Amino acid sequence: MSGESFGEALRELMTERGIGVRALARQVPCNPGTISKLCRDERGTSEAMAKRLDAILGSDDRLLALFKATTGTVNARVADGGDNEDVERRTLLGLMAAAVTAGSMGRDAELLRGAFETAVAADASDRDADTWERVAFDYANEVGWAPAAELQPELAADFAELTRLVPTAPKPARVRLIHVAAQIAALMAINLTNLGDGRSARRWWRTAARAADQTGDHAAAARIRGRAAVISLYTETPRLSVIEAAEESIMVGRGDPGGVVNGHAAKAQAFAELGRHDEAKDALDDLRGVFERLPEFVRTDRSSWGWSAGRLHFVTSFVHTCAGNLEPAMDAQDAALAVCSDRGWKFRSQIEMHRAGALIRAGDVDEGARHMTRVLERLPAEWRGDRLVQGSAVTSLRLAGAGQAGRPSLQQARELLKSAGDR
């Protein structure tokens, strides 16, 4: 702990616990901006806030010790001003709400807040755009990690609020707000897919693409279309339609690597599923070329919009798994698992589904099915029902030969998936 700042410790704890800015802010409760500033050491805090964060994160008074070491307790309220009183008041109110009927109180409070926002409505400004860009950033780091059922009402409420702001904004702020709307609509689509509602997700993808087009940012428009193509691989979308969507994304992106990378990834995987393995290999080669040109900040971004080496290993694993190339598939899976973060349970689980599929495709059907069953049984029930994990598992099971489909090991894996999907 020696020499670390409060913000450094908080960021480390949040990463270790797999909790995002907005999720932590909900538990405090406080404004997400407060947590963001604490993470960046851009504001002071109070003893009450340090204690509350320690309690939520289970950090054995680590943050409290840092608070006392850096600011002390005597002048804490003076140094932090009225904001700390507000944080303490919010904390008390949050604890009271948790003790009573948190759900209904939250809904009632949201109605009151919306009425007030309408009453004092003013033209949106660049400051509003700054705020909403932070909101979109936070969501991009939560979708796919936090429970989808908890995120869905929050995404919907925030999108509704953002929609009310856009018409009143002057042009520079308006374009920025529409850009945020495109991101949140896309994240809504991803979250709906995680919940198993692919039809609603398609409508949100259309909204996201239209919004991105209005900004004039061709890279963003391509990125959203490409991500839609990738996520549609976990729905019943015909794979030829996925390829068409991927090619549209590549065309819209005009060669921007960050814009077109998802399109190339979707194309390689769709060809692989169709059994068009030469075309899948060519698409994978194209993807590798695009990956080499990605800016470093895109490769290191762990949000929904980043494209790390792990994603490249994932696509490589999938293409070789479908083709029955056991050794290259296993090598790609090992490489993917080696770079997987501690909180990357979904990514890790999907790679293990690939491993099961590689064994099944290579003819070791029982071992592949048993591997899948072991991995699924180790997952908590709510993770086992995740639609991306389920999609990877179902694709791997389909790699069994026609004469193998009735084997008891495969049937056991199917029943486990069905029981999780019915939850």
TrEMBL record:
Classification lineage: Bacteria, Bacillati, Actinomycetota, Actinomycetes, Streptosporangiales
UniProt xrefs under Pfam families: HTH_31
InterPro entries: Cro/C1-type_HTH, Lambda_DNA-bd_dom_sf, TPR-like_helical_dom_sf
Protein name: Helix-turn-helix domain-containing protein
Domain HTH cro/C1-type: 9-64
Alphabetized GO MF terms: DNA binding
